[in-house]
Design a protein that fits this description.
The chain folds into 2 domains: about 1-45; about 50-84. Helices cover about 85% and strands about 0% of the residues. The protein has 2 helices and no strands.
Length: about 80
């Protein structure tokens, strides 16, 4: 009879411990979601492109980047040809 009592006590502690961990994790998720919303509201990311920026301006800046990439590729090919 003593062993059955120990098993039941062990099960009770297991359920109590797992419930405590589950409730703590649930509380942590809610708190982190609230903190995330507060941070996004008062400290927005500066890396985002402004909404008012026109598509033409975005395309022009992308074209400049493309020209730089093409120039770098051509220069590296020419350097490679000089070495061989």
């Amino acid at each position: 009879m003593g062993h059955v009592n120990l098993v039941m006590e062990g099960l009770k502690f297991m359920v109590l411990g797992m419930t405590t961990v589950y409730l703590f994790l649930l509380l942590m998720v809610f708190v982190l979601n609230i903190v995330s919303k507060i941070v996004k509201k008062y400290f927005p990311s500066k890396k985002l492109r402004p909404v008012y920026m026109k598509r033409e301006a975005v395309k022009a800046s992308e074209a400049k980047n493309d020209d730089a990439v093409v120039a770098a590729i051509v220069a590296s090919i020419q350097q490679f040809k000089k070495q061989n």
